[in-house]
Specification:
heterodimer; A: 317 residues; alpha/beta; Rossmann fold; Alpha-Beta Plaits; 4-stranded antiparallel β-sheet; 12 helices; 28% strand; B: 247 residues; mainly alpha; 14 helices
C-alpha cells in the first residue's frame, strides 16, 4: 500500500532524510523509531504530501504523492505531530468538517462522525470548543479526524503522546485492531508500544534506516538476547565469575551481590545464541540455584546501541 | 464541480470559525460605529442637505478598510501555521487553490455581511429624500470590491508569517501605500517630480482612483477589472508563498 523509494529531504545544507526506502502492506503496522530529530516526522510529512521530497518517490495505493496528490491523499488518514485541530470549532463541528472534506455528506457524514466519536471516546466533549479541551482530548479529536473516512492507510505521528496510561492502552488496542485491515505507520518514543502494536519496526537515525525487522528480530540484536541470569546461594563471587567466564560461548559476566545471594548474568558471544542456556546449566550442575532464566533481549538497549553507539560503549567500560 | 464542493466546505468552516470567535462581533460593531460617526459628524450628512451617500458615507470606506480589513485577514493563514492545522489542511484531498479560494471567499463574504449591515443608512437617506439608488448600489459594489482587494493583500501577508500582528502591520503598510499614492497631495508631488504622465501611471495603482468612480455611481469595467486582477494576483502570490513553505 505504501512504497517509499530512496527518499531524500534537504533543508539548506542539512540532510534531514537521507535515502530512506521501505514498504508497508495491508495488514501491517510499522513502528517508526528514532531519537528526536532523526527524520521521522519529515519522512511522514513527505509520505502524506505536506512537504515535497528533494529526491525519491512515494506511492500510496499505487498513486504517486507528487504526481497524483489528490488520489493518494484520499486513501490516507494523517495524525500530525502535536495533533493540531481548529481551536475555534466544536469537536462535532471539526469532525463534521473533516468528514465533508473527505466527501461524506448527509447520513454518511453523520455515521462517520458517530463512529469516530465512539472509537475515540469523545461523547463527553462533543459540543465543547476544541480550544478548551485537555491535551488528551485534543489528541483524540485529531486522531478521530484521521480515521473519519475509514482510510486504507493511516500515518500517525506519535499517536499516544500526552495520553494517560488507560487512554494509551485503548489507542494501542485500536491501532492494532485497525492494523489487521489497513496499512499503518506510526512513530513513537515508547519502546513497549512497539511490542504491543507493531508487526514490524524501523529504527531511523540521522535520516537513515539503521534497523528494520520484527520486534523479535530487533531484540535479537541486543547483547541481552540469550543472556542467562541466575541467582546462586552458597558460592563465592569469584567462583561464579570464573566458572561462567570459562565457558566457551561467554562474552562477559556481570555480578550483583545481595547478602548471601549472588545474581549473575552471563552474556553469550553471539547475541541470541539458543544453546547458551544449556551450556550454563550444564556448567553449574551441583550448585544451589534459586532462579535461572534466559533474557529475551531489550529493545531499549538495541535502540541506544544503534542510535548512539559511542555512549553505550563508554558505559560498558 | 467537485472542486466547488471543496471550496464551499472550506469557506463554510472559515465563516463558522469567524462567528465562533469574538473577532467577528467586535469587527462588525466597530465598523458600524465608525460608519455612523463619520457619516453624521464628519461627513455632514444632514448639513449637506443632499440625499446621497457618496460624500458622507462611502468617502470614508477606503480609510476604514485600511485598519479593519487587515484585522480580518491576518488570521487566515498565520493562525493555520501557528496552530499547525496547515499540515492537516494540506494533507486533505483538496488542492491548495481550493483552500486559498475557500478561505478568501469566506472572509470576503464576512465583509459583505458587515457592509450589508449598514442598511439603516440607506433606509435613512431614502426616508429623508429621493436619492439615486443606482448610484448607491454601484458604490456598495465598489466598496465591496475594494474590500476584497485589501483582503487579498492581507492574505499574502498572513501567509508569510505565524504572527498575526506582523501580518496586520505589513498589510496595513502595503495598503496604506496603495491608498496614499492616489490622494491629491501625492499625485501633485509625483507630478512635480516625474511629470503628469508618470504621476497618472502611479496614481492608477491606487485604490482611491478606482473607487472614486464607483462612489459617483459609475461602474467602469476598468475599475472592476483593476480590483479583480489585484485580488487574482494577490491570491496567486499567496499560493506561491504557501508552496514555498512546503519545499
Amino acid at each position: 500500500m505504501i512504497k517509499v523509494e530512496n527518499l531524500v529531504k534537504v533543508f539548506g545544507t542539512k540532510h534531514a532524510v537521507d535515502g530512506i526506502s521501505f514498504a508497508v502492506e495491508r495488514g501491517e503496522v510499522l513502528g517508526f523509531l528514532g531519537p528526536n530529530g532523526a527524520g521521522k516526522s519529515t519522512t511522514m510529512r513527505m509520505i502524506t504530501g505536506f512537504i515535497t521530497p528533494t529526491e525519491g518517490k512515494v506511492t500510496v495505493g499505487g498513486f504517486d504523492i507528487v504526481e497524483q496528490p489528490i488520489a493518494a491523499k484520499r486513501l490516507m488518514g494523517y495524525l500530525p505531530e502535536n495533533a493540531p485541530a481548529y481551536t475555534d470549532m466544536t469537536v462535532q463541528g471539526f469532525l463534521g468538517f473533516a468528514a465533508e472534506i473527505r466527501g461524506l455528506h448527509g447520513e454518511a457524514k453523520r455515521k462517520a462522525v458517530a463512529r469516530a466519536v465512539d472509537l475515540c471516546f469523545l461523547e463527553n466533549v462533543l459540543h465543547q470548543s476544541v480550544e478548551t479541551l485537555s491535551k488528551g482530548y485534543r489528541h483524540r479529536t485529531c486522531f478521530a479526524q484521521s480515521i473519519i473516512h475509514d482510510p486504507d492507510v493511516l500515518i500517525l505521528d506519535e499517536p499516544t503522546d500526552g495520553l494517560d496510561p488507560n487512554q494509551k492502552h485503548e489507542i494501542r488496542m485500536l491501532i492494532r485492531k485497525m492494523g489487521e485491515k489497513k496499512a499503518i505507520i506510526f512513530s513513537t518514543h515508547i519502546l513497549e508500544e512497539v511490542d504491543a502494536v507493531c508487526s514490524r519496526a524501523v529504527i531511523i537515525d540521522r535520516g537513515r534506516i539503521v534497523a528494520n525487522g520484527t520486534p523479535e528480530q530487533l531484540r535479537q540484536k541486543s547483547e541481552w538476547a540469550g543472556a542467562v541470569t541466575l541467582r546462586v546461594v552458597g558460592q563465592s563471587e569469584s567462583a561464579i565469575k570464573d566458572k561462567l567466564t570459562q565457558l566457551r560461548s561467554t562474552k562477559r559476566v556481570a555480578l550483583h551481590a545481595n547478602g548471601t545471594q549472588i545474581k549473575a548474568t552471563a552474556f553469550p558471544r553471539t547475541a541470541g545464541d539458543g544453546d547458551f542456556t544449556r551450556e550454563v546449566i550444564e556448567a553449574t550442575r551441583g550448585w544451589q540455584i534459586e532462579e535461572l532464566h534466559t533474557e529475551e533481549g531489550r529493545l531499549d538497549e538495541v535502540f541506544r546501541s544503534i542510535t548512539m553507539p559511542d555512549t553505550v560503549k563508554d558505559q560498558t567500560k | 464541480m467537485n472542486s466547488w464542493v471543496n471550496i464551499k466546505t472550506i469557506a463554510k468552516r472559515e465563516l463558522v470559525a469567524y462567528f465562533m470567535s469574538p473577532l467577528a462581533y467586535v469587527f462588525i460593531v466597530i465598523f458600524l460605529l465608525l460608519c455612523g460617526t463619520f457619516t453624521f459628524f464628519f461627513g455632514y450628512f444632514y448639513e449637506r442637505g443632499v440625499a446621497e451617500l457618496g460624500q458622507s458615507f462611502f468617502f470614508w470606506h477606503p480609510w476604514f478598510y485600511l485598519f479593519l480589513v487587515p484585522a480580518v485577514g491576518m488570521r487566515l493563514w498565520a493562525e493555520e501555521r501557528r496552530v499547525g492545522t496547515l499540515e492537516l489542511l494540506m494533507t486533505m484531498p483538496i488542492t491548495p487553490w481550493q483552500a486559498i479560494l475557500g478561505k478568501f471567499l469566506a472572509s470576503w463574504l464576512f465583509l459583505a455581511i458587515a457592509l450589508a449591515l449598514t442598511f439603516p443608512l440607506w433606509i435613512t437617506v431614502n426616508y429623508l429624500g429621493n436619492p439615486d439608488n443606482g448610484v448607491i448600489f454601484a458604490a456598495y459594489l465598489g466598496s465591496w470590491l475594494m474590500a476584497g482587494a485589501y483582503l487579498a493583500i492581507s492574505c499574502i501577508t498572513s501567509a508569510m508569517t505565524r504572527a498575526q500582528v506582523v501580518s496586520f502591520i505589513v498589510a496595513l503598510v502595503v495598503c496604506a501605500l496603495l491608498l496614499l499614492v492616489g490622494t491629491g497631495g501625492a499625485l501633485e508631488f509625483f507630478k512635480n517630480l516625474f511629470g503628469a504622465g508618470m504621476a497618472e501611471a502611479i496614481g492608477s495603482f491606487s485604490f482611491l482612483t478606482h473607487f472614486v468612480g464607483f462612489s459617483k455611481g459609475v461602474i467602469d469595467s476598468r475599475d472592476v477589472l483593476f480590483f479583480l486582477s489585484l485580488i487574482g494576483f494577490s491570491l496567486f502570490t499567496t499560493s506561491v508563498i504557501l508552496r514555498e513553505h512546503r519545499h
